[in-house]
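Key result, reporting period 2: structure in, sequence out.
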């Protein structure tokens, strides 16, 4: 079952840039889903991602069900741990935090997820996850207890991505962290893009149409934006019919 992944590859082949709107379950009340998802539907967004590094109240399952009522866009889980898995989504980014050396986030939590995943029908997409320094400590750094890669270490970052590709990962995700003050630099995106053949996702701290275009121009195939939509839903107006 590789429908979601093939659609990502096809979009790249056809020169279509992709955008995922990230919904953090802790910040999205269920009764706000309908108006929010309607805005997503009218925008250039191609995917909805659902998840957070650490959830206070686990409403992922209820939210996933509600989201699917209002959209045909693919809903992909972006979970901090196995408790956020639900069969009400279409797919799962099976993230391995390859910028860090915490075994729990490289393989440990993945093993714990298997009993649940075996009962589900999600399209599981192996994804290399690389955390890049952004100026402030983000939730991923705090919770995973790993240090982000330094921005100046462009070569090491691109070698890490290449190693992930050789290990069989199907997507590579450059992450500055949710709410980052400094999105991933264009130089880093370009350097990684020139090393790998798999699709490149970029997220963290992207707050304007200019930031978005910069990430695409540097080589991002799919950009993820969460905070900018949470803080100001009028941001959707900037990206309506952007293609
Ligand atoms: C976080 O990359 C995503 O994992 C999105 O980040 O919330 O800063 O848009 P923002």
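The corresponding designed sequence is given below.
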């Amino acid at each position: 079952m590789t429908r979601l992944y093939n659609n990502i590859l096809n979009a790249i082949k056809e020169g279509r840039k992709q955008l995922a709107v990230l919904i953090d379950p802790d910040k999205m009340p269920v009764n706000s889903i309908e108006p929010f998802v309607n805005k997503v539907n009218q925008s250039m967004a191609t995917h909805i991602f659902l998840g957070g590094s650490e959830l206070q109240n686990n409403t992922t399952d209820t939210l996933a069900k509600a989201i699917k009522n209002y959209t045909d866009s693919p809903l992909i889980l972006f979970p901090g741990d196995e408790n956020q898995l639900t069969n009400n989504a279409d797919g799962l980014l099976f993230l391995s935090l390859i910028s860090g050396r915490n075994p729990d986030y490289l393989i440990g939590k993945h093993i714990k997820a298997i009993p649940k995943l075996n009962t589900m029908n999600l399209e599981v997409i192996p994804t290399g996850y690389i955390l890049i320094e952004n100026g402030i400590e983000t939730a991923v750094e705090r919770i995973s207890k790993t240090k982000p890669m330094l921005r100046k270490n462009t070569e090491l970052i691109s070698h890490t991505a290449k190693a992930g590709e050789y290990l069989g990962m199907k997507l590579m995700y450059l992450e500055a962290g949710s709410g980052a003050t400094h999105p991933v630099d264009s130089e880093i995106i370009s350097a990684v893009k020139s090393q790998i053949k798999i699709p490149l996702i970029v997220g963290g701290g992207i707050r304007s149409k200019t930031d978005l275009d910069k990430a695409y121009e540097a080589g991002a195939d799919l950009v993820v934006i969460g905070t900018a939509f949470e803080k100001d839903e009028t941001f959707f107006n900037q990206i309506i019919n952007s293609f």
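The longest helix spans residues 103-117. Residues 22, 175, 178-180, 203-206, 224-228 surround SN-glycerol-1-phosphate (CB under 6 Å). This case is discussed further under Risks and Mitigation.
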